[in-house]
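Contributing new complexes? Match this layout with adenosine-5'-diphosphate.
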Amino acid sequence: MSDHYERVKIELQQMKEVENEAAADVQQLSPASVSSVPTDVSFTARRDLSRSSINGRSRSKSRSKADGHERQVNGKQLSDLTPQKLDYSQGQSRVSNEPSLHIKGTGKLLKGKTAANGHVESCQRQTDGKEDGSKVAKKRRTVTVDTSKAKTSLEALKMSIRQLKWKEFPIGRRTACDIYWHGVSFHDNENIVSGQVNKFPGMIEMLRKINLSRAVRTMQELFPEEYNFYPRSWILPEEYQLFSTQIRLLKDNDATLKPTFIVKPDSGSQGDGIYLIRDPADLRVISGSQIKQAVVQEYIQKPLLIDKLKFDIRLYVLVRSLEPLEIYIAKEGLSRFCTEPYQEPSQKNLSHVFMHLTNYSLNVHSGNFVHSDSCSTGSKRTFSSVLYRLASKGVDIKKVWSDIIALVIKTVIALVPELKVYYQADIPPGKPGPTCFQILGFDILLMKNLKPVLLEVNANPSMRIEHEQEVSPGVFEYVPSPVDEEVKVGVIRDTLRLMNPAERKQHVTSNTGGGSPEEAIVVETGSDEKEGSADSLPSLCLKQVFPKYTKQFNYLRVVERIATIFLRFLGVKGTMRLGPTSFRTFIRNCKLSNSSFSMASVDILYIDITRRWAGMLPDSREAGMCLQAFIEAFFYLAARRSKALPLREQVLLLLEVCEGALEGQSHSEKPRPHRSHTNTNPASSQSSAPTTFSSPALTRRRHRPLQLSAKANTEN
Ligand code: ADP
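Output block (do not edit by hand):
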């Protein structure tokens, strides 16, 4: 009863607040408050955050963690690992003495009205005397954010909202909010019919290890060279035999080869259940009576090392919209270091998790883990500090960065087709619903030859800005983590700025094709970043990379065009599977059957492929042909029509046939646009539409010959 009473009181309070909002908005227009930033929040990249005040949150929460030592790491008890005293001394006082690396935009002040990427910054807008006050009052309505489901990102989110002077609704709101921040999935809050949600439907599913591997593999079939940044992978259990046979053949051909493989459970995270093997016979495929779903992947044996330690990079990527496709990359990321010096895998060291796995969640339990207040030392550092180290050794870091950008864009392009299917199923065109955006966590490894390799993409990257620290045996405390705060608050704050509803309406994509990814980073050495003045926010730490680099990457969006056809025949009923009748209609409307390919053959093709995919997706509740199965059928049909050509050309020819046939049909059959397509700017939507690709001579490689980087590495 009292809970209910409390809730009613809060709702009443909120209703009053809604009424008061207009007045509050007008008040906010006073020059002092338009763009002021709380003075206790600094945006300086190199500030010593250990001394910063962190408003409104307890700096440490003690909890006894009796189970902390019982956690299993690949069969190894963490309690077995000799706990050593943590070394807090490293790097404590280095901050101010270090030469600093500035990545353009991470902390610079906005002087004019436009941010680094050419966007008009609504939070920077000043009354210039020409605009009448009431008009401006409307424009500057306070943006509202529902944070009730934010979970572990709450602290960073709260800080961001405070910096932006927006309004937070921590227990939700009776009326709609502009932005809903979910901690896990699109469905955290049900029944949202407007506004924007920070998760796409289906993203979690798409980024499970098997689905990501499948999506990248489809692209590898069409563009083997462009997608060679993802290690060769096999899906278990269905490709167990294929894996065993290929490895046996490989070893038979070259006895000197000693490849290593990493096995990752499909839905695992934080290194859980991961192990290394050197022989297919060592696969632990069965767990109890269940066959484990997993990906087994070529292990990169020669990673780039710093101070003899393996490390990986966590980069934050904002998918701002699927249609038109808009991708941003955070200019600052995290580098996570192993805590045991690296040695190439041998039978002896395969189980040394602190040597081979860079996961923070594992290495934090090592006695060698270094918590540091500096962003450029310790076991977790900023990526820019690593780039600085590399630059000082003569590494062309612009090239490294541009390769990383290309990897990110290509990966998102691989994910988009299926994401569009999920999107249409959850928010069918014509029904009310929110639009979506999402921050993804890309985990990237640099090889010794500096080539970036994609390890995985996280749908829910940790946005925690505190970390656990063992203060006495078995007792852990949450303490602020300067490096996490440095990176993550900027990412969340600037994502919010980009999703500002007023901003989105006016958004003009300034650059739709020129430039090269290398321009994305400008490295400056010299003085520390200047502190943000009280009336400005720093320039955006998120850099637009798509549609900016449309010209360079649009030709890869071939599968997306197949998905567009799939969606058209799927209709708007909220399903994700094509029925046999719809498949027949597709064949008929695209005029693909003829005397040598009868409708009976079409039915057999449908049944064959659909049945096989149903076996590969045992969890699926829906019957019918999924997008991946449709793509396979499309490839088959393409190969039938023009046998002599490489696959990519076959597919492009068939796409032209289908698109031509469908274009001629009545408007009423055309699919209505997604409502995620909020960008009303015709220039940008034109620019991001996949264009027809005409390729040079191509080689068909449906079954890629096995080429392991163990061998490729020896060339470097
Ligand atoms: P999880 O989601 O459990 O963290 P990851 O795919 O990120 O799984 O793998 C965990 C860690 O294992 C990575 O952070 C990286 O250090 C290492 N790793 C993963 N894949 C490879 C690979 N193919 N080659 C070398 N190291 C890898």
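Reviewers usually confirm one structural detail per submission. For this one: Residues 231, 262, 264, 268-272, 274, 297, 299-300, 312, 357-359, 443, 445, 455-456 surround adenosine-5'-diphosphate (CB under 6 Å).
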